[in-house]
Every structure is written in C-alpha cells, then in structure tokens.
Amino acid sequence: MIKEIPDHTLDSGKRYWKSLDDLAETPSFKTWVEREFPEGASMLEGVQRRGFVKLMAASFGLAGLGMTGCRRPEHTILPYGKSPEELIPGVPNFYATSMPSAHGFIPLIVESHSGRPTKVEGNPSYTPYGGGTNIYAQASVLDIYDPDRTKTGLHRDSSDSSTWKSSSSSQLLGDVSNWVKEGKIAVLADKSSSTARKHLKTQLESKGIEWFEHESIDLSSPENTLGKAFGINHGLRLTPKLRKASRVISLDSDFLGNREPNSLANTRALMKGRKVLSANDAKKMNRLYSVESDLTITGGVADHRLRLDSSQFVAFTNLLAAEILTLLKKGDEPLIAKLNDRGSSQAQHSKWVLECAKDICKKPKNSVILPGSHLPTEVHALAFLINQELGAIGTTVEYQKTDNSASSISDFFKKINDGDIESVIFLGGNPVLTASSYDWADLSKKIKNKLHLGHSLNETSLICNFHLGQSHFLESWDEGITWDGSTIVPVQPLIAPLFDTVSDIELLLKLIDSDKSSYDFVVSLQEKRSTSVSFEDFLRLGVEKLKPSIYSDKVSLTSLDQFKGKIADKPSSENLEVLLIPDFHAWDGRFANNGWMQECPDPISKLTWDNALLISPVLAKELEEKYPNLGLLPKPTMLNKNGQIAPDAAVFDHGKQKAPIVKLTVSEDQSITGPLYVQPGLADYSIISTLGLGREKVGNVGKGTGFNSYPLFNKDFNRILSKVSLEPTGDFKILANVQEHWSMEGRAIVREGNANEYISDQAFASHMGAESHSPKIWGKDQEADLAYKARTTPRGNSSYEHPDHNYEKSETPGLHQWGMAIDLNQCTGCSACVVACQSENNIPIVGKDQVLRGREMHWIRLDRYFSSTERDGAELPSDVQVSFQGVACMHCETAPCETVCPVNATVHDEEGLNAMAYNRCVGTRYCANNCPYKVRRFNFFDWNKRSTDELYKGPLGEENDSLPAMGKNPDVTVRMRGVMEKCTYCVQRIQESKIQVKVKAQRNAMLETGKDGADLVLEESDIKVPDGSIKTACQQVCPSDSISFGDISDPNSEVSKLKNNPRDYSVLGYLNTRPRTTFLAKVRNPNPLMPDFESSPHSSREYHDKAHPVHHDDGEHDTHEEGSH
Amino acid sequence: MRNLFPRWTNTIPVKVIFALGLIGGAVTAGINYYATPKYTRVGYQPTQPVSYNHEFHAGELGIDCRYCHHGADKSPHANIPSANVCMSCHKNVKADSPLLAPIRDSYFGEDSNKDGKLSEGEDLNGDGILTTGPSVPWVRIHKTPDYVYFNHAIHVNRGVSCVECHGRIDQMEVVHHDKPLSMAFCLDCHRNPEDSLRPMNEVTNLSWTKQTDSNNSTFDSIHSGLDMKHNWGVNPPLSCTGCHR
User: Fold this and answer.
1) Cβ within 8 Å, pair A919-B85
2) Domain tally for chain B?
3) Order of all β-strands in the sheet with A247-251
4) Which chain B residues touch A812 with a CB distance below 8 Å?
5) Between chains, do A76 and B235 touch, taking CB under 8 Å as contact?
6) How far apart are CA A506 and CA A518, in angstroms?
7) Which DSSP string corresponds to A859-882?
8) Burial class of residue A163 in the structure, from the number of CB atoms within 10 Å of its CB (0-12 exposed, 13-18 middle, 19+ buried)
9) How many structural domains is chain A composed of?
C-alpha cells in the first residue's frame, strides 16, 4: 500500500503502543482513534447557550452527588496468550550483547523489562573493560525510543521532490534486488569492526558489487599509514597495555577520553596503577606526561602537562626521539643529528624533553609513548620506533596486524565520475554531512538509484530517492571484534524491530541474494568458527576468545629516512591553527538527536546543548586588544578581590555568558561561524572546534544546537588545519554552561597532594579545611570506629540531641548502614556516571533554555575545577591543573534538608539513607535551599509529559510522544511537576538485593532443614546483603572503579576500608552534616626534576596560601563561599 | 426612622457563620474518615471478561494460588495467568464452553485449526510466525498507587499469607476487594508482623488458623508469631524507602 505523506516530519505513523487499550486494540479504542474528535467534542452547535449552561450546572451537581469521581478508573491487566519462556512479569531479564562501532565492539549486558531494553551495562566477562562502559553506550538505549526514527521505508520520484511516499521495507528491498540484477552498484558504508559484515563484503565483491568505506573521524587511519610507511603489507594497530606501565607519554592523545579508541581499557589499566592505598602504592604509582594542544581529560589526569600546538608535534617528537635514543645509546650519529635538526624549532622545551626522557629511560620496558590518531604518520613512526627501542613492545604496548583499509570515499567519487555506477547504497553513516567537500549534488544528478539506510532522515537521505530505516543494534543480529582483537562478541536483539526497519546485515544479505535471515547467518558464522563453544553459550557469555595477530618483527631505524618534508611553521596570531575534534555530545553527529548526550555537560568546558570555538586566554587577550568591543573577556577591573568574574554587560546578559560569534576562514570556500569560548590550558594559538553539531537535517532534539565545523574539512580529512584567520561578526550567542566559575578559590573542596607529600604524611587531607582546626565533629567519639558512628550517630559537640533513625524498633536485625566512597584519584572525569544515573533513575532532560535557568536535573554533578600557579587577579591562567569531583546527594546523617521540610517528605531511614518521598512533597524547595552541597533538583515542569518547547503552556501544551516512556525504568517513580528529587543511592537496587537475599536464605533454609515454622532459624549474616552485590548505577559504569558502595557498619566491606584510609575526607565536614559519601584525596605524582615541578598541587598551594596567613578567617570565609555553585 | 429589620436579625450573621463552620467541619471530617480506601475500595467487585470462579477452583478443587499466580513467590507482581495456564486444563475440560471463548481466542490466535503449527492461510498478519490472539482484558481489582512498590515475593516467602491482604479468595465466587490496602493497613502489619506470620508451607492455605496445643509446647512455639519473627530475623521496613522509590 502506498500512501502519500506531504512532509515526512509530520508523519505521525506511530506503530508503538500509546496505552494498554491500544495494545489490546479494543473496539472502543478503535472507534475513539477513528473519530476526528472525541465524542461530543464538536457538538455544541444547535444547542442553546442557556440550555447548555443549565445542563452543565445540573451535571456538576450530579457529579458531586454520585461520588463517581472517587472511584479509580477501570484498569485492565493484559496477560500473554502464550507466556514466553523465562519471562516472569516484574523480574527483569539480562542479555549479553554488544554495541557496534568502527573502533571495536563494546561488550554489554542489557536489562530488559517485559521485552523492553531499559538499561545498558558493561559485560564483566570482557576483562579489559571489567564491566565498565562509556557514555555513548549508556546513551545508546535512548536511540531505540527516539520519536524521530524512521518508522517505515520511504521513497520519492526524484531526489529533488519534497514528498516522501511510504512503503514497506520489504518492497524497497525488492527494488534493491532488481538493482543488483542490473549491476553497476556500489556500497558506501560507515566503518565497522563487524566480522559478519567482513564476510558479506567479500561475497559482495565476488558478485561485482563495489565496496567503499568512509568514517569521518577514523581513529584507525594511522594503522594503515604506519604499515605503509614501514613497507609492511598490513596495518599496525597500536594497542596500549597499560597495566604494567609506569611512565606514559601522551602526544596529543586523549587515550583516556572519547577521542581515542579503546579508552575504557586504557582508563581501567592506567588508573589501576594510580590506586594509592599505602605509601608503597605511592612509590609504585605510574606517571603520566601529557603534551597536548586542547585540554582533554587525559591532560587532567596528567602529572606533567605541556601545552603545544598540534602542528608542532612532528618537531616535538623528533626532539623527544633524539633525547631518548641518545640516552639509550641507540641509533647512529647522523640519525640523532637529523632528529635534532627536525626538532630544532622546539628547542625552548628541551629541558622539559630531556628530563622527561631521562625519567622514561629509567624503566624503559615499562614506559610507553602514545601518539594521537590525528597526528601525521611521522609521529606514529617515531613513536613506534621509540617504543621498540625502549623494549616496551610486548609489555606496555602491542601492535596488532590489521587488514588494509577498504577503498575510500575518493575512490568512490572516482568511480562515480568514470560513470561505472548506476546505483548507490549508503550503508549507515552520513557522508553528505561528514565529507561535505565532495560534490554530492553532482553525484545525486548522475546516479539513478540512491538508497540510504539510516537511523533517521539525515543530510545523506536528502540526496537520495530511497530511504530505509536502520534497526537499532538492540534490534538486530551481528557479531564483531573488540579493538584489541582478543575477543569476538555477539550482537543479539532484545526486542523485535519496533518499526518497519532492517539492519545493515539484512540489507547486505539481500544484496548477495541470500534468503538467510541475519540470525541464521550469524549462527552459521559462529558454528564455522568454533566447534568447542555452542552458539547458545556464545550468547550466554557474550564473549569468545580470539587470538590476535601480534606484529613482533623489528623495524629498522633507517625507515625514518623517508621523513624529509618541511616542518610546519609555529602558529601565531597571524597564523592560527585549528584542531577539529569529535564533539563530546554528538561524536561525529550520530548522537545529535540524543537528549541525554546533548544535556550532559562536556567534562572540561561544561557546555551543554552547544559547541564553541575554544581559544586560549593568550589569544583571547590579543583578540580583545585587536577588537576592543569584542566582549570576550571581562574588563580587568571587573574581577573582584577573590578573582571572581563580576558581571560585565559586554560579557554577561542577565547573568548568562554571552559569547561573541566569529568567522573562521581556512580558505575562500572553507569557513564557518561559531561562538568563541575562552578555555584555560589550551596551546596559545590553537583553536579547538568540534565536529558533529549544527546539523541541518536532524530530529527535534538536535535542532539548532551548535554550529557545523565539517565545512573546514579538506578532502584528505586532515584534522589539523593551519593558516586560519578569525574575524568577529558582531553577533553574540548565549551559551548554556553549567559551571561558569573555574576556581575553588583556595577552599579545600577537592584535596590534593603530591605522592611525596602522601608518603611523608598519609593523612594530609585531614589537615586541610576548616574541620582540621574546628572542634571535633564527633566530640569524645571522634576516634570511635566507623560502624559505631554510623549505627548510633553520636551527639558530638552539638547542643541538640540527634534523632534516632531506628524509629519504633528496639531490635533491628539485619540492618545495613549504607555509605559511599569516591576515590578522586581514580576519577578521570569521563562523565559516564552522569548518563548512567540518568538512564537508571528516569531523569528527564530539560532543554537548553531551562539549563540556562539552572534547572538541569542530573542527580550527579561532575564539578570541574582549574587551579594554577600564578594569579594576579586580572589574567586568566594558561597553565592549569584540572580536578574533578562527582557530587550527588551525600546522604548526611544530620541532614540539613530534613529539618526544614514542613511535610516530612525528606526523612532518614534506618539504614542511613536520606529518603525522598515524592508523594509527600509539596514543593516548597526549602530543602534545596538548605542543602550545602546543592544536589537537590526540582521539577519546575512536567519534563516527562511535555517536550521542552511546550513546557510553558502547562496543561494546554501538547503531550509528549509516548515512545520514550517505553525506555523508563519501571522500578523507579517517574516524578511529576512540583516535586523535589535527588540521588537515592539507587534505592531500588538496594531493596531488590535485600529482598532477593532474604527470599533465597529463607527458601534454602527450608529446603535444607525441612522446617517451616519458628523452629527454622536464620542467622543475621544470612539475611544481610553480601558486600559488593549491590552496585549503584554510577559505580557499575565506572571503568576505573572510583566509586565504592556498601555497608559501613561492616568493618570488612570495601567501602569501610576505603573510608578508614587516611586519604578519606568529608566535603564541608565542618558543617557537621556527617555525609555518608566521602572522598579520597587525589594524589599527583610529578617528577621533581622537571622544570615545571611544584612541590604540591596548585589547588593545595592555593589553599595553604589562603588559609594560613589568616587562620581564623578561613572558617567564616568557607561558610559563606562554599557550595555557591 | 423605624428599624427595617427586627432585632433578632442581628444574630443571623453569627448563626450563619457558626452553621457554615459546623457544616464545613462535618464535611471535612466526613471526607477524612470516609474518603479512604477502607470505604472507597473495599467491596469493589467488577465484572470480569471471563467469569472465573475462585470459590470453585481454589476452594473446592484446592488448586494452589501459585499454580496460576506463579510470580507470587518470585516476582514483585503475583501475575495474572496467561491464557496458556488456563488452557493446560481447559483444552480437555469444558473445551468448547462458550464462557471460555476469550481465553481460547487469546491462546490460539491465528492458529485456526488448533494444531499448534503454522498452516496454510493462518499467517494473517504476514509476520511468518503463529501469533496469539488478543489478551484477555482482566479488570484489575487490587492496585497500589504508582509510587508504591509492593513486592509479593518477600511477603510470600517470609510467611505472610495471601489472605492477609486479599481475604478469603477461596470463598469468593466473584473476587472483590476485601482489605483497604491503605498505607495505614500496611504499617499496622509492618509494626506488628508477628500477628501475620505463619509457617511457610501454610502461606497459600487460606483457611489456616493458628492452633494451640496445651500439651505440646514445641508445637506452640513453632506456631508462635513472635518466635518466627525473632528466629527468621523478620524486620519489615517502616521508613519511606521500604516502599517508595
């Protein structure tokens, strides 16, 4: 059936349920749907107004008499016709699957409630990630329930026509089969580590179908160029093995963040080597040197950080290689001379490089150099050879042999221009956006049949005349390998496709004219590969070991002779440099319509719903001089004595930061406009711009967010651009930044020390903050053990008696006392916990406008602080240290929020949780006002009911699409307008675990003893939850295990041990709130011989400078200032 | 000038205010007392699409509650049985009864010749599998509000009988709402669980009553609620987090 749809964006072909009646397709619902308006809605004509009023009055009266309104509406329960196996309504099922990606599949365990996938977790069977996941995997579950998804096959007469007609996918697949018969067909695919796709690709090629691949941000491109440079006929893939690393140098490589592949394994391994629980650990702690142009989260972790423009890395690496090879006594003199010569332009860093090289060469085998994937081949070749000469290959790094890359997009266009192609299939991806330097309009004219397979209509579908919806990975069958090549993982669907969509494997199977289903195909692949493991076991475990092919030959140093090209000029204010990076929110654009990603603040800049051109304070100052009315920096006098930025009309509009919009020009036809944002820690003349936002054809969520940087891309997709000029346009843009202020202002919120300080004084953190010189919080019980303090809440020095949270009970067997410890030394700031919490706890998004009003709803706020050595009050610092601190409800034992609630909606429970009873809350917001940590969030609107642009219409506004409701966690209340909410320590998981432990204990005891009455005796240990079996959502997602949660009344629990560590401290502890969440101070490990060495971290120096000259001021000052943002 | 109104009218405003106060107070008190689940929910007895007789099945035939409500000891929800549970008997017993038509429709669905296989012309929706029919729309009787997370498994496994919240279902031809299931009702039991505990094997025996045997003190102590509470470590939550998440 073909049906005309004038505008696809208005297509309301909802095929998912709206209500349970809809699912049941009851006749009454059908008639209701078929009527244009509900019965009686359009019947007012013909009735006299007087009669109408009379009727109304009578019916109101009757309504009051009958009390019919008091009855709950009738509600039906709809059981299955035939109940599926293994499904008990109310009990979630978990399935092993994985998230496909161009840079290694991510093994996952996905939670399903009655067939609906709701929450993504990492698969702990894959040990390098240890059950951790990244932020994109967490957010991916929202994409299944994206109301803007393509819901049916679409086609139109020509690619100029604006009318899409819908038809079924199977019909379009039939058309595709006909094209194959005609021949001359090409596939342009996004890259994927899928092995299923690899098999299909060879079969396609044998049928004469041309295959091309394009990935705009191709993190695997260096492996192919490196192989070529060394004259090897395969790729060389860098795979860090950081578990044994003691010295790591990152060359513009964000290997802990989202810009490099395998960051989960890197994070887990590197941070394990930074876990400091004793002085001995501190001595063995690894050291990270980071040289980079942008400030990344890797740079935040680094012990030494050097700012360097991305174009200068060729010279810098040459200099580093020269020093290391000299120290190792490798390489002949001419080579060293050549390296020194090519590195001569970086001579000002020679002291830094020399000391760094010396440190590296102390433990050469345990050191490693990691180059960023966007850097030129020369840097990768040098890094390979340094790693080889250090003897690091095999211990801290491996190079895998990989296949050569498929034909690229330029080959594709060559074929098109030769006229050899009549039909093109775009398999996923969005090349029209990401490769905008190619002439797509011309292609569209030349090619007759163009089909796009994609999640939703995007820029690429606009040049096509056929569009097929792509099934989400939780709706499809596939299998692929992880980045390190050690494991093959399945992709198994948790739900049949919600809409009429097909997966990429299904489309490819159609192209090779196979009648196999994608399931049969994946089964056949697995059975061919493995005889020992059955397919069911493969799915059950979700991983299967593979033997990666490791490159173990030596490469001669003479291969460096080929690098002779000119060394790039140093950037200056006349010759600016641009580094293009994948956007934190949208990556290459694929997450642009994902509300969770859009609203999650960028870890460093803390921007939401937008990107910006990041510039250094030095460049900002120069621009300010050049264009006095630019409005980029506040006037120096506008900084108050604390160095706080006082509102300046040029920079702030109603307290919101205004960013001047500039035009950035690379060449005549390559320019973009975007807002400027000053970011400390950047290389002086590097501008950082992100790819993926500012899309033209995108769903409702991504509309109007950010600006598009893809026009800057050349045909070679080089991400470092030089000779860029910048010019203000005179316009401004308001940016939704959730943390405009940078500094801790010398307060001891994040406490940091150097490893040496820690070795000499493990309890350095307890000597900081006002509580270090205030009367003891617990009074005479100060030294009592944690379990006693948690159970009894001693009165301490308080004038008031503390409430007894055990309520009416005299005996309370099997109680726990919940607590959390966050090791700041393990946190990289990756922000995955923020989205994991959002997914687990049904936290809504609020949109840019509401974020600007400070109404974001995230239960975890990841605070980011910058600290610097020099501050003269007027200058923004360039060299900064970054500290992260995740702040959620602290579950204070003496919680300030509880005492001010007029309706007892927030009270303590007997296990130490600060409970929030939504159904009691009347929304006075006193609690939020009285919370010193500012972790309470208020539902100003019905975020879940209405989309962000309908909020102010209240009940008159249009209700939301109900599709996203399918992804909600049914174990957590969806909060309504006017209700306060906050972190609950994932109370639903706590209660579920407690119930399961008790049920199991009692049943097993009955089965074992045969007793069922009071003669059955259970020990207290039987009905208590074993340590480690409850994981909060934020804890479970964390790849570096920086969050621990458990029973602090059990001295042997992991969390108790951490809390008894001398590094443990409470934020704002002097307020006597006695938070159950405490932090472990951060330990940095700088090298005393380095030129930029400081004996203690910047933040610690700031604190001591401020705290010690005037001792008694500190407490008062803290009370006023802390928690002010 | 003569007074327009007689003298007694002076007290009318006071009387009216007083009367309004009384009426208002009475209405408030009335709503407070009567507009509670005890009066608004108890007795609710909707007509079900299939007139299933609990008195016959659970009482006379003695089918265990968990045969049909199989989630009661495993899941937060007790579960309304799917049509295949009914059909495991009613394939043979009263297989053609018109009263069971909705159950059969739901169970067989597209399988019009009832052979359990996809035969010619049966795949009406064209999805290649045998699709079951529409669900039987059972009308919900017992419902806690959305923000209450009641868990059947923990109650059933810790010796709290079905009868405590649902009444003598085995004596109801048509099920009705028997207990108020209000927060006060829950808390009464959470405060004094010993009154509602019974040996685990008697949980689904709705007619069970506590028996004492003056000659056998062991028997008594096995059946003592307080002892069960103590020995099992029964500690029902009294704070918000127990039920509200």
Assistant:
1) no
2) 1
3) A304-307, A287-292, A247-251, A367-371
4) 235
5) no
6) 6
7) S-EEEEEEEES---SSSPPSSEEE
8) exposed
9) 5
Count the residues in chain A.
1125
Q: Are A867 and A883 in contact (CB under 8 A)?
A: yes
N residues, chain B: 245
Residue A384 belongs to domain spanning: 238-402
Cα four-point dihedral sign A35, A38, A39, A43? negative
**Does some domain include residue A229?**
no
> Least CB-CB distance to A81: which of B107, B146, B149?
B107
Residue B36 in any domain: the answer is yes
- Among A380, A402, A424, which residue terminates a domain? A402
User: What's the gap in Å between the CA of A836 and the closest CA on chain B?
Assistant: 17
The average confidence (pLDDT) of chain B is 89
Tokens of residue A303, six digits: 């012990």
Q: Which of B107, B210, B245 is the best residue to mutate to test the A interface, defined by the most A CB atoms within 10 Å of its own CB?
A: B245
Contact B84 A907 (CB under 8 A): no
Burial A265-292 (b: 16+ CB within 10 A, else e): bbbbbbbebbbbbeeebbeebbbbbbbb
With CB atoms and an 8 Å threshold, state whether B139 touches A74.
Answer: yes
Mean per-residue pLDDT for B85-99? 91
Q: State percent of chain A over pLDDT 90.
A: 55
Residue A1 has pLDDT above 50, yes or no: no
**Does A32 score more than 90 pLDDT?**
no
Question: Smallest CA–CA separation between A492 and chain B, in Å?
Answer: 19
Domain contains B34: yes
Q: Distance between CA B41 and CA A451 in Å, rounded?
A: 58
Determine the pLDDT at residue A807.
54
In a domain, B17, yes or no: yes
Check CB contact under 8 Å for B83 and A82. Answer: yes
| ipTM of the shown complex | 0.90
Instruction: Please count the other Cβ atoms lying within 10 Å of the Cβ belonging to residue B195.
Output: 13
| Inter-chain CB proximity B77 and A1006 less than 8 Å | no
Work out the pLDDT band at A37, boundaries 50, 70, 90: very low
Please say if the pLDDT value at position A1113 is more than 50: no
Q: Where are the beta strands (DSSP E) in A764-872?
A: 818-823, 861-868
pLDDT in tens, A86-135: 889 899 999 999 999 999 999 999 999 988 999 999 999 999 999 999 99
Angle at B166 between CA A920 and CA B171, to 5 degrees: 160
Q: Is the domain of A772 the same as that of A673? A: no
Residue B23: domain span? 12-40
Instruction: Return the structure tokens found at B16.
Output: 């009216």
Q: Please indicate, yes or no, whether residues A363 and A415 belong to a single structural domain of this protein.
A: no
Of B106, B136, B233, nearest to A1018 by CB-CB distance is B233
For residues A478 and A508, give the distance between their C-alpha atoms in angstroms, rounded to a whole number. Answer: 12
Burial class (CB in 10 A: 0-12, 13-18, 19+), A658: buried
**Is residue A400 classed as helix, strand or coil in its secondary structure?**
strand
Half-sphere exposure of B122 (CA within 13 A, CB side): 19
- Mean pLDDT of the residues in chain A: 86
Confidence of residue A650 (pLDDT cuts 50, 70, 90): low
pLDDT of A514 = 87
Contacts of A913 in chain B (CB under 8 A): 239, 241
Contact B135 A988 (CB under 8 A): no
Express each pLDDT in A511-555 by its tens digit.
988 888 999 999 999 999 888 889 999 999 999 998 889 998 888
Amino acid A158 reads: S
Tokens of B204: 């689904």
Closest alpha carbon to A510 in A176, A199, A203: A176
Does A1014 sit within 8 Å of B231, measured CB to CB?
A: yes
> Is residue A333 in a domain?
yes
User: Looking at residue A1121, what is its pLDDT?
Assistant: 40
